[in-house]
Design a protein that fits this description.
about 350 residues, mainly alpha, 16 helices
Length: about 350
């Protein structure tokens, strides 16, 4: 059978398809939404600047954190000592940067470990179910009812003089349970999806399904959780160090500096307000950046809907509504386009045959 193709209709169809805009990737959509939130972008820049300051201060600072100036005891900030000195002549700028470096390192490591542990435990409990689910959730419930701060305060003196990484482990152990419960609930839903069933029927192992198909679909949740956990871990470390259960001398952290400067906050304010100011700045920046990241990854959140409704009511017009629809539902638009194209191809084939 000879099939005769209409060159004119084929060219017109090609031009129509070429004129249609390309589908925007999810990564670009997330980045575009995040960049619209100026406060979150500024907070991300602040976090990056704090990390750069904390880890590069030895390149430009005149003093080290353990070096003493015997000619300057409790001197206010000046050209030689930018943040002043403490009662033994130690430069407060170097001490603050060293404390910020230690606190940020602990916060970052705790966030990575706790989020990773929550992802593994929650996905395993939700995917395997039955005895595995009951055993893992029993551990989660047990850790949730234990007073974490009190337990760490009791255990930490046994590790005095040893590496500060032990403190990271102790903090991470008590900071993953709630996220694990959320991951478990999402896994219970995802394991019934068609792509997971297809992977199971194709003979893929359970671990491969978890790491290749389930956890990637929770990337937004895990990223937001890790971001928030950084600030929470820094606050926990600061609280423990404030009471003497965290970082031990001769090393310093923001908590130890705040604790030592509390009594002199009125008479020698630079001893207290510089470390406390950096702590407040970092925690606020992390929280606002986390909020912006959550709104970017979840376009249906209440804040996003309110902001877009407000813009549409002020500016108005069908163009704004169309732009918002494309931004919020790119996947739906792509699916509809694919369905229409397939239907057109099938109709063309039937007419030609």
């Amino acid at each position: 059978m000879t099939v005769i193709l209409d060159e004119g209709s084929a060219n017109a169809s090609t031009e129509t398809v070429a004129a249609q805009p390309k589908a925007v990737s999810r990564g670009r959509l997330v980045l575009r939404r995040f960049l619209r939130n100026r406060l979150s972008v500024i907070c991300v820049l602040v976090i990056i600047a704090l990390y750069v300051l904390a880890f590069t201060y030895t390149w430009y600072a005149r003093w080290t954190y353990d070096q003493q100036d015997y000619n300057a005891f409790l001197s206010p900030p000046d050209g030689s000592h930018w943040f002043g000195t403490d009662k033994i002549g130690t430069d407060m700028f170097a001490q603050t940067m060293r404390g910020l470096q230690k606190s940020l390192s602990i916060g970052l490591l705790v966030a990575v470990f706790s989020t990773g542990l929550a992802a593994l435990v929650g996905s395993a409990a939700g995917y395997f179910g039955k005895l595995t689910d009951r055993a893992l959730m029993w551990v989660v419930d047990l850790l949730l009812v234990l007073p974490s701060f009190l337990i760490i305060a009791i255990i930490s003196p046994a590790f005095q003089g040893k590496t500060w990484l032990i403190l990271v482990v102790l903090l991470a152990v008590f900071q993953w349970m709630i996220t694990a419960r959320i991951v478990r609930g999402m896994t219970l839903t995802l394991r019934e999806r068609e792509f997971v069933k297809a992977a199971r029927y194709m003979g893929q192992s359970s671990m491969r399904i978890i790491f290749r198909h389930i956890l990637p679909n929770m990337a937004s949740l895990l990223i937001i959780d890790a971001t928030i956990n950084v600030g929470a871990a820094v606050l926990s470390e600061t609280s423990l160090s404030y009471f003497g259960f965290g970082v031990q001398p001769p090393d310093v952290s923001l908590g130890t500096l705040i604790a030592s400067g509390t009594e002199s906050a009125q008479t020698f304010p630079w001893l207290f307000y510089f470390p406390a100011g950096f702590l407040v700045l970092f925690v606020l920046a992390v929280n606002f950046a986390g909020d912006g990241l959550r709104d970017a990854l979840d376009p249906t959140s209440t804040r996003n809907r309110w902001g877009k409704r407000k813009k549409s009511s002020t500016k108005g017009g069908p163009a704004m509504t169309t732009a918002l629809t494309k931004d919020v539902l790119p996947e739906t638009a792509t699916i509809e386009k694919t369905t229409i194209d397939k239907a057109a191809i099938d109709t063309s084939r039937e007419s030609q045959s």
